[in-house]
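Technical annex B. To support the medicinal chemistry partners, we prepared a structural model of the target in complex with fe (ii) ion, based solely on the information shown next.
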Amino acid sequence: MVKSVQTSETELPSGVKAPVQETLLTPRFYTTDFEAMAQTDVSAQNPELQAIVEELRADYNRHHFVRDRAQSDECWDSIDGETRLSFIDFLERSCTSEFSGFLLFKELSRRLKNQNPILAEAFQYMARDEARHAGFLNKAMADFNLSLDLGSLTKNRTYTFFPPEWIIYAVYLSEKIGYWRYIIMYRHLESNPQHQIYPLFRYFESWCQDENRHGDFFKALLRSQPQMWNNWKARLWVRFFLLAVFATHTLTVFERATFYQSIGLDPREYNTKVIQETNKTAARAFPLILNANHPKFFYRLEQCSDNNIRSAEIEKSHRPRIFKFCQKLPLILSTIGHLLQIYLMKPIDAESLRGTVH
Ligand SMILES: [Fe+2]
Ligand SMILES: [Fe+2]
């Protein structure tokens, strides 16, 4: 069982890490309408899906997630203070989000087995990959004398219900942004080896190919459902999901600035690059993408992040709740205003970029 909320790992020398408090920014656990997912007719993208399942079956990374002996034996006390806390936070959030993917894919694979074997098989392989990723991150946490109790996390977390279409939009984006987050970090450390202070990042090059394949699977799934991209309603949803994912990413990166600085990455540059690349990639699946080149696009996202950091400061104070709420209200309104303005920026038509109008 997870012990009561304790934030200092020194109180849990070889113990179980108490999970961070659930907030809007902590990775969510999802459930969906499994029956509706099972009924999904994917025949319009059958050749693409078969090709991806073939790739997933080949299991290119089956020998990749093996920890080097030296890493297990090494003492990581050199990573200390604020850097250590931000490292643990990074590992925990990443592990939770990989594990959340595992749970969803595993359940989808189990429930779709009889009615939709091709999707069930793909979900089974993707669950395998996510379990490896989560397990590997949990072992990395052990280097800091901590681990996450994944069994109890499964039972105790709140599950958010998303209809299948939302799952497809959200997971597609989270796989693609995951790919860019890992590969940009990997390439940065490859060209700046002096910042390679912990061996986990060396694994990211092949690791992110798993996420890329998962994203490609969701892209084929999405394109097999014309109502998810060929009408005005779909276009509004796509704008919403792009904005939600980019805003969450910005807030998380700036909240965890110490972590990125500790590996020599400038949080602002990193955030900008990840979002620009993910947005460009999304043009292959979505009918439109956001205009990330708009002069106010990143300014507004960063203002939301400033508001978030200031709100967190207010929340930490010991003032009465109503007082804190009144202090936070202008910040909340400002964030809503910025998000709305980004949402209303003229998007870029991706269907015409692709040159295929179906
Ligand atoms: Fe993963
Ligand atoms: Fe993935």
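Notes passed to the chemistry partners:
The radius of gyration is 21 Å.
The pocket of fe (ii) ion (ligand 2) is lined by residues 101, 130, 175, 178, 210-211, 214 (CB under 6 Å).
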